[in-house]
Specification:
The protein is mainly α and 241 residues long. Helices cover 78% and strands 0% of the residues. The radius of gyration is 43 Å and the shape is elongated.
Length: 241
């Protein structure tokens, strides 16, 4: 009960029945407002559930305070150094695996060449035997079997050679990874040069410790949003990292 309602009741301008009706209406209004707020929260929650996780993260980043703090996770040159280092390590591992596969293919190709030499000798032998003893069926059968084996060996060697060529193409393509690394390193060098130039540009003859403290408020300022000493020191410490 408000003070106005209490005065009206004491003066006789309002009775208890009217006061009860107003209380019921106020309670109903409060309940409707709470229900409306709960529905709004439910809609927001449902929207977040249906949203893509990347979109939710993007909205959080947009609402975050910028610029981000100068931590190891946000330092650009630090991250680029990690990228070039990890990229070079993974590329070296891939080259080692490719080289192992290439060496295995070359060994198998040499083994097949030895087998083909034996098959060629067998074909020559059975051709002579079949020509001299045409009635012997086993000579004719072995001649055909050796010829088929020789064809399979030739096809296998061709596949191994094509695989070796493909591996060489992969290694050539992987050379672009080194070019990309060099481009990133060039960007890093430019960024570092610009950083040193800016630091040199803003250098002063007086050390920061010896400078007079800056005024937090100057006559004529139209607002009271002034930075405290702690805020300024924190900002300087952040730039110094």
């Amino acid at each position: 009960m408000t003070q106005e309602e209490l005065d009206a009741l004491m003066n006789g301008d309002m009775d208890m029945d009217e006061l009860s009706e107003e209380g019921v209406q106020e309670n109903a209004s409060d309940e409707n407002a709470e229900e409306k707020a709960a529905e709004d929260e439910g809609v927001s929650a449902d929207e977040n559930v249906n949203m893509d996780p990347e979109e939710i993260i993007g909205n959080k980043i947009k609402s975050a305070e910028l610029p981000l703090p100068a931590t190891d996770e946000n330092k650009m040159v630090h991250q680029l150094d990690d990228v070039t280092k990890e990229s070079e390590e993974k590329a070296s591992e891939i080259f080692d695996i490719i080289e192992t596969i290439s060496n295995d293919l070359m060994e198998k190709e040499e083994s097949l060449n030895l087998i083909m030499d034996v098959l060629n000798a067998n074909v020559a032998l059975f051709e002579k035997l079949h020509a001299k003893f045409p009635d012997v069926e086993s000579f004719s059968t072995q001649l055909e079997e050796n010829k088929k084996a020789l064809e399979v060996a030739n096809e296998t060697i061709e596949v191994l050679q094509n695989s070796g060529d493909s591996i060489m193409n992969v290694m050539d393509i992987m050379q672009y990874q080194d070019i990309h690394r060099q481009k990133i390193e060039r960007v890093i060098n430019v960024m570092r040069a610009l950083s040193k130039y800016m630091n040199t540009l803003f250098e002063g003859k007086i050390d920061d410790e010896k400078r007079v403290s800056s005024a937090t408020h100057i006559a004529g300022d139209t607002h009271n949003d002034v930075a405290s000493t702690e805020d300024i020191e924190a900002l300087l410490a952040q730039f110094g990292q």
